[in-house]
Description:
Two copies of one chain form a homodimer.
Chain A: E1 33-35, E2 38-43, H1 58-80, E3 93-102, E4 112-121, E5 125-134, E6 137-148
Amino acid sequence: MSQKFFQDLWPEELSYCFGCGRNNKDGLQIKSYWEGDESLCIWTPKEYLKAGKDILCGGIVATIIDCHCLNTAIAVAYKRETRELGTEPFIPYATGSLRMELKKPIPIQKPIILKAKVDQIQDKKIIVSCLLFSDNILCAKGEIIALRVSKDFWKQ
Amino acid sequence: MSQKFFQDLWPEELSYCFGCGRNNKDGLQIKSYWEGDESLCIWTPKEYLKAGKDILCGGIVATIIDCHCLNTAIAVAYKRETRELGTEPFIPYATGSLRMELKKPIPIQKPIILKAKVDQIQDKKIIVSCLLFSDNILCAKGEIIALRVSKDFWKQ
């Protein structure tokens, strides 16, 4: 596979997020990558992340939507500055708000595919929306507003 | 303490949720209780649940808001039927949608207080909103729409 996962390119010290940090051994470690103008994430849940029997916990659905969309916002910010992903200085964004609709129960045993796209870019704000599929069935939708934050935000 | 935690009263087999199940040893195990017409939840994050240094992961914020609000919806459904919490048959609800605003970074080391209230009750739909405080500072707001589901939904 030749795609670069966004999360593998961020600075070491910013890679401890529960949802997407490659250095968080107890985290979900989701990976996002470009496929054309969409960003994709393929991830398989673990048993302890359930809500009820065999159904993925809604909060974990929110977590993977949030992390996939926020990583996509940062990746598009690099693209917009025609810079290679991961080059210094890092372009910091944080989630300002999130919306999520749960349409169908998401099975815990099967891989999930998230597809995100950038809907709007403003000066300090990027809106990213996301569809979540399991077994080719649309199970959830989400959207975040990502806000540009100061260079020290994630280091405080 | 005389309050009854909602999550301690649900059936054993429905108590494995990552966010709030008392039987999920790897979960967050949040606890919710009535204080007047509000429901409260006091919970302290763990280090591995961070986003960046010392800041709680946004997806975990969504998880505790979702679980606290959904438990509140179920508790109010019992109240509405003038039934004791936890008596059989269990009244099943599931989150249909969630909205969350993150206003300030939430420190990972300090207890969080969630205060939820029921905004609207319809036949098969309960809307619950929630404020999240850390150190007495309002850091996040959330809302869920909880939908009444079939008795087998969580058992499938």
